[in-house]
Amino acid sequence: MADRVSENYMKELETTLKIGLVATIGEDGKSHITVLSTIQANTPEQMIVGQFTEGISKSNFKLNDKTGFLIMNLQKQFFMGKMNWTHEKKEGPEYVMYNQQPMYRYNTYFGIHTVHFFNLKEISEKRDLDMKGIILNAMKTMAGKNLFRKRPKETIMKPWAQTMMSKLDTLKFISFIDENGYPIIVPVIQAQAASSGTIAFSDKPYTEYLNKIKAGTPVCMLGMNLDLENVLVKGTFRGFKRTIAGKMGSMDIDQVYNSMPPKPRYVYPYKKAEAVKDIF
User: Fold this and answer.
1) Rounded CA gap, 22 and 16, in Å?
2) Helix (H), strand (E) at residue 168
3) Pick from 77, 107, 125: which residue ends a domain?
4) Number of neighbours of residue 88 by Cβ within 10 angstroms
5) CA triplet 118, 72, 189: central angle to 5 degrees?
6) CATH number of the CATH domain containing 19
7) Is 193 a domain residue?
8) Are residues 104 and 168 both part of a single domain?
9) N or C end of the chain: which has fewer CB within 10 A?
10) Under DSSP, is residue 32 helix (H, G, I), strand (E, B) or coil?
């Protein structure tokens, strides 16, 4: 890990054609992942994020400045890191830079209205996504996920979300809070839904990170496809155990969050609709 972005990577992180994920800590003390493709390096020691929608992550910045990130390019190479939120601005050169980008300059509905600044704590070297390891472990997870199948009292993930979290081509990332209080993000593309309330996954290929998650740890997992459809599930990690398909673990889901526009919000637990009796 380095405490600054090298000159070789500064330009690479500027592109808008990337997957940018930021993990924050909510008021419940648990990790939350948001897709923020605007994340990039402003200087070798400073990261920035451009905000154009209203969601939980932006308020989380101010609740707890410790954040984590994962940035993946189109060549399936990624960086992992940690940073600390410092301040926000609604004007200045960074604000102008974001709004001159074609994605926002010609957007009729929204532009970047706030820029968030972070002090970089650490960033990894660029590493290749281990596709061979992911495919092998996806096959193992498919063979062993029924061992973790549970029948919840009610449907937790809707069929669309369950199908998405079961597909082998859905990109999936898990986040948990490490021993230093930072949320980190790890690829778990091999993960698959065992039921509407449980997701199973093997401990490989990123064993060095996944084995740090202890049984009973609160975790969240983001699933997204290349159409930028995504869903975030939160729950509790139940630990790894040896199975006929190898070492596998699971998370029990207790919350489902829709992070897509126009209305990011929790969709599980369900909120009962109440009739409007008085509008005055």
Assistant:
1) 15
2) none
3) 125
4) 15
5) 120
6) 2.30.110.10
7) yes
8) no
9) C
10) strand
Same domain, residue pair 193 and 103? no
Give the angle subtended at the CA of 258 by the CAs of 250 and 140, to the nearest 5°: 25
Q: Token digits for 39? A: 């994340």
**Do residues 256 and 172 both lie within one domain?**
yes
Q: Kindly state whether residue 192 falls inside one of the protein's structural domains.
A: yes
Among 125, 160, 190, residue at a domain's last position: 125
Q: pLDDT per position in the chain (280 positions), as tens?
A: 899 999 889 999 998 889 999 999 999 999 999 999 999 999 999 999 999 877 788 899 999 999 999 999 999 999 999 999 999 999 999 999 999 887 776 665 568 899 999 999 999 999 999 999 999 999 999 999 999 988 888 999 999 999 999 999 999 999 999 999 999 999 999 999 999 999 999 999 999 999 999 999 999 999 998 887 899 999 999 999 999 888 999 999 999 998 877 677 888 998 766 666 666 5
On whether residue 273 sits in a domain, the answer given is no
Q: How many domains does the chain have?
A: 2
Indicate whether 279 belongs to any domain: no
Half-sphere exposure (Cβ direction) of 237: Cα atoms closer than 13 Å? 26
Residues 139 and 256 in one domain: yes
User: Which domain covers residue 88, as residue numbers?
Assistant: 7-125
Cα separation, 91 vs 107, in Å, equals 19
pTM: 0.92
For residue 144, what are the CA distances in angstroms to 15, 46, 85, 211, 242? 39, 43, 40, 18, 10
| 146, 112: one domain | no
89 contacts: CB under 8 Å, gap ≥ 6: 95, 114, 115, 117
Beta-carbon neighbour count of residue 269 at 10 Å? 11
